[in-house]
Design goal:
By secondary structure, this protein is an alpha/beta fold. It is built from 10 helices and 8 strands. It has helices spanning 18-26, 46-56, 76-84, 89-92, 109-121, 140-145, 213-217, 228-247, 252-261, 263-274, and strands at residues 5-10, 29-37, 60-66, 95-101, 134-138, 162-166, 189-201, 204-212.
Length: 281
């Protein structure tokens, strides 16, 4: 994990006992994700789990509501309403963030936008400098291959909300910079779910997440969160600009002299001139 990260978990379909909660809290988990609606039904453990987490006061509740396969325009608000229905008002007030779950084939982008607008109207609104309130949970594969976009709702038109990125590599890190999608910048990825529910812990079988605590709490992104890829690309561009300028007046023999001054630059230029790694002949 990076500095400022915290752990979260999702055990949505199993009842969370007090002993299991305390065990997970002792293990460093601070965010509890709960499914509100699968697109077909509401998990029976939904309200009891949210209530326990609220009453214990150690973790923060995050709710996600799934859109079903082939969710059509005009259905988004209905599915979000199903996810919130039946949750008492005092428990709803304990839910800091709600995410629209986009995992299944055929979901229309119009339904996603309708879902987000419905949740905004219910009070989950992201504001500058405020805590994270609204997001989309999805993956590179689901977003690029399952969602049906249109002229009004394009693949890159949802960056007004946070991204909860599913990337099951079983590593507590952030992979979005290497595998970006959807137009989100790396600093807009508030969470990465890095495992599915296949490893027992504290009596539960959990999906596990890494969360950016600063973004979750509403602190401004630090420099190391923002446009990291851009800075790397700019640095690489400057390096190759320099190599291009040097290579116009340099032959392989001169590279040996250059190697004493800048070994990395010399290796790149030698390869470009000869197609061989420097020092292999």
């Amino acid at each position: 994990m990076e500095a400022g990260d915290i752990l979260g978990f999702d055990n949505s379909f199993d009842y969370l006992t007090e002993a299991e909660h305390d065990c997970l809290a002792a293990g460093g988990y601070r965010i509890h994700m709960q499914c509100g609606y699968t697109g077909i039904a509401r998990p029976l453990a939904r309200v009891p789990n949210l209530t326990l987490v609220r009453d214990k006061g150690v973790m923060t509740n995050v709710l996600y509501i799934s859109l079903p396969q082939n969710a059509q325009p005009g259905t988004g608000a209905y599915h979000m309403e199903q996810g919130l229905a039946g949750i008492p008002d005092d428990i709803l007030a304990s839910i800091q963030m709600v995410a629209v779950d986009v995992e299944l084939p055929g979901i229309t982008a119009a339904a996603i936008r309708e879902s987000l607008e419905y949740l905004k109207n219910r009070g989950w609104v992201n504001t500058p400098g405020g805590p994270a309130r609204l997001g989309i949970y999805t993956s590179l594969n689901a977003w690029n291959n399952y969602v049906v976009f249109d002229a009004m709702n394009t693949p890159t038109s949802f960056t007004d909300v946070w991204l909860l990125n599913a990337f099951w590599d079983w590593a507590q890190d952030r992979d979005f910079e290497r595998f970006p999608y959807g137009g989100w910048a790396p600093w807009q990825v508030i969470c990465e779910q890095y495992t599915g529910g296949d490893i027992p812990e504290c009596g539960q079988t959990l999906d596990r997440d890494v969360w950016n605590l600063r973004l979750f709490q509403g602190e401004p992104p630090q420099e190391d969160d923002m446009d990291t890829n851009l800075r790397k690309i700019q640095a690489a561009g400057a390096f190759f600009d320099k190599a291009s300028a040097v290579i116009r007046t340099t032959n392989p023999e001169q590279v040996k002299t250059l190697a004493e001054q800048d070994p990395q630059l010399a290796a790149v230029i030698y390869y470009l001139l000869t197609g061989k790694a420097f020092g292999t002949d």
